[in-house]
Please model this.
Amino acid sequence: LIAGTAGGVEQFIVGLAYGLSLLAEGREEYHFLAYSSEDHWIKPYLSGACRILHCTRPLRKSHLRQVIKERSPSLDHLLHKVYPVSERWKIKNLWSDGTIEKANIDVMHFTHQVAFLTKVPCIYHPHDLQHKHLPQYFSMTKRLIRELVYRLFCSRARLVAVVSDRIKCDLIRFYNLSQEKVKVIHLATVMSAYQKPTLKDLSDTKQKFMLPDT
Model:
């Protein structure tokens, strides 16, 4: 992930990293796949049996898109509506770059809805089906890409993990998955991973959001 782009999914991964780091070191190792230029957000929460594994494919940012965004916001807005930037990378890198295969990873856990094709056995984690229940908030392009990605990786995964029975029912209903393939695994709180806020942190937050003193 790129820090700040995945909201709750980022918090989920931080909690997962923190929890796995508390396990006693044994035969298992847990590798967190990241871009070398975008690993700062997860590093502080990794220790023990957890490691960073840098992918060989570098993170490329489009200079042309930045120029269009700065010089012609209306054109950038139109392009985004036709082919959303947030969705492009979901189908741009569908194939593994070979990093996990070279590292002899036994099981790949896709903690984000975005995944890639690999022969390594995998767990897929679709967090919700918003585009099914709230289609009015998604363009046709977004809905089509989500359908492609979700169906493809639900089909290929050995196991599909979800956070609730509601989402499990959705996946069985919409994607014809078996009861045995979808497992409900409740999330632990991520708050234990964070340091207790200082008085200055609280004061800065109150000032930033103009909160009343209570």
Strands lie at 30-34, 50-54, 108-110, 122-124, 159-162, 182-184. The first strand starts at residue 30 and ends at 34. The chain has a mean pLDDT of 86.
